[in-house]
Amino acid sequence: MDRRAAVVLLGTGAVMSAVMGCKGPSGLKWAESSAPRVRVNQVGYLPRGPKSATLVLESPQPVPFELRDEGGRVLFSGTSQPRGLDRASGDRVHLLDFSAHRATGTKLRLRAGDAESFPFDVRPDLYAQLKLDALKYFYHNRSGIDVVRPFVDDDLWARQAGHLSDRAVPCWGRSCDYVLDVSGGWYDAGDYGKYVVNGGISAWTLQALFERSVHVGPGQDPFGDGPLRIPESGNGIPDLLDEARWEVEFLLKMQVPAGQPFAGMAHHKIHDHEWSGLGIEPAPHATNRGLHPPSTAATLNLAAVAAQAARIWKELDPGFSQRCLDAALRAWAAARRHPDKLAPRSDDKGGGAYSDERVEDEFFWAAAELYVTRQDPALLEYLLAHPDGKRFPTRLGEDGDGLTSSMTWQSTAALGWISLAVVPSALPEEVRQRLRDGIVAAGDFYLEVMQQEGYRVPLGLGESGKYPWGSNSFLLNNALVMSLAYDFTKDAKYAAGVAEAMDYLLGRNPLVQSYVSGYGSVPLRHPHHRFWAEGYRSGFPPPPPGAVSGGPNSSLQDPQSRRSGLTRDLPPQKCFVDHIEAWSVNEVAINWNAPLTWVTAFLDEWRGG
Question: Does the annotation count 500 as an active-site position?
Answer without folding.
Answer: no
